[in-house]
Each structure stands twice: as structure tokens, then as C-alpha cells.
């Protein structure tokens, strides 16, 4: 398994983000239609297994100190193998390298596996912020990243 950086315009990133968005719309009871996804400044990492991109996630700067974890997704056939945990760790390292001291995220209250991943990784609940304030299903978390020695 390999974790590598890919541009937001990479077709495999696009395919995974589209799959993630479809799955989220179905999970929250929404329609399974197309949605426009904006990649504003997101740096993506992908997980490649056997030559196939099986997972993605990104970091988007919110301000000088804070990055936001975006679009974490693992293809269903690859879940339960620890891929999300490894990707999360790599994304935290990317955020740290970008100069962020805090990494925050939003997920859905209807996604207990995601909430479990983040809380077991040291993320603490925070008030809902930004574009998520009016979404009754949004829950937000943050983690202070280690400082360089």
C-alpha cells in the first residue's frame, strides 16, 4: 500500500470524491443526484493498493493555524483494513507540514464509523462551524497537532 499526493484535478480523485458525495447523500436521506464539488485549495492524498486508488482525503487551509480535513473516503470493499487510520495519520502529517497546529473536520451524525475513527484518533467535539452551522446532521471535531521538537 502506498500513500501519495495527487492534484484535485486527478480523475481518480474525482471518481472517489463523486462516490463519497453519492454515499453521503444516500446516507442522509438526500437524493442520489449530482452535486458540484469545489476543491478550493485542498491538497489530496490517495491510498494506492495493487495499482488501484482505494481511498482519498484532503487538507484545506482555513486560516494560518487551522486546516480542515476534507473528503475522507475509503471504497467500501477496502473498509475494515485500517486504511482510513493510516490515511488520517498521513493527512495530519500533511497539515503539520503546511504549518497548521490544529486540524478540524465535519462529519455526519449518521456516520458512527467515521465518528469512531476520529474520536479514537484524538479528535475532540467542537461547536459546528462555517458552512455546517445550519445542517442539523453535522458534527465537528478538532485535534491539536504535535509541535516540532
Automatic annotation (TrEMBL):
It comes from the Bacteria. The keyword DNA damage does not apply. InterPro entries: Acyl_CoA_acyltransferase (IPR016181), Bact_Acetyltransf (IPR050832), GNAT_dom (IPR000182). Signal peptide: none annotated. GO terms for molecular function: acyltransferase activity, transferring groups other than amino-acyl groups. SUPFAM superfamilies: Acyl-CoA N-acyltransferases (Nat). Keywords: Acyltransferase, Transferase. This is N-acetylglutamate synthase, GNAT family.
Amino acid at each position: 500500500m502506498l500513500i501519495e499526493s495527487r492534484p484535485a484535478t486527478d480523475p481518480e480523485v474525482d471518481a472517489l470524491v463523486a462516490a463519497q458525495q453519492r454515499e453521503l447523500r444516500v446516507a442522509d436521506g438526500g437524493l442520489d443526484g449530482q452535486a458540484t464539488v469545489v476543491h478550493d485549495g485542498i491538497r489530496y492524498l490517495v491510498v494506492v493498493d495493487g495499482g488501484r486508488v482505494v481511498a482519498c482525503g484532503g487538507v484545506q487551509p482555513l486560516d494560518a493555524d487551522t486546516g480542515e480535513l476534507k473528503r475522507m473516503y475509503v471504497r467500501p470493499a477496502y473498509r475494515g483494513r485500517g486504511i482510513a487510520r493510516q490515511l488520517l495519520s498521513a493527512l495530519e502529517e500533511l497539515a503539520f507540514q503546511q504549518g497548521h497546529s490544529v486540524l478540524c473536520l465535519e462529519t455526519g451524525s449518521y456516520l458512527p464509523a467515521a465518528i469512531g475513527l476520529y474520536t479514537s484518533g484524538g479528535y475532540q467535539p467542537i461547536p459546528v462551524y462555517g458552512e455546517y452551522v445550519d445542517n442539523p446532521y453535522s458534527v465537528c471535531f478538532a485535534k491539536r497537532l504535535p509541535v516540532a521538537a
